[in-house]
Design a protein that fits this description.
This protein is an alpha+beta fold. The protein has one domain. It has 1 helix and 4 strands. Strands 1, 2, 3 and 4 form a 4-stranded antiparallel sheet that branches. Strand 3 and strand 4 (68-72) form a beta hairpin. The chain starts with a helix and ends in a 12-residue tail after the last strand. It binds zinc ion. Zinc ion (ZN) is lined by residues 21, 23-24, 26, 62, 64-65, 67.
């Protein structure tokens, strides 16, 4: 599955992720180039560990207020390793 912006927008639309912005109600969004990753932690007692596990996510930005929403790529059927 390709990871270009149009494909991500189409997948989100197909999955019904079409609600207005949770902050301002706008319906104008942009999909950011590339992908990001949320750092995952196993144990709060160890403090913040960087460079460990991460969840790759697509980033969607509200064009009106800039609110940022992330979507797990795995749930969208996208594996960033396939893009290498
Ligand atoms: Zn907004």
């Amino acid at each position: 599955m390709p990871m270009d912006k149009d494909s991500i927008a189409r997948i989100l639309n197909d999955k019904g992720a079409t609600h207005p912005c949770h902050r301002c109600g706008s319906v104008q969004f942009a999909v950011a180039d590339g992908y990001s990753a949320l750092t995952m932690q196993d144990d709060f007692k160890k403090g913040l560990v960087l460079g460990g596990k991460a969840m790759p996510v697509a980033v969607v930005i509200c064009k009106q207020c800039g609110a940022v929403t992330t979507h797990a790529l795995a749930a969208l059927g996208i594996n960033p390793k396939d893009e290498l």
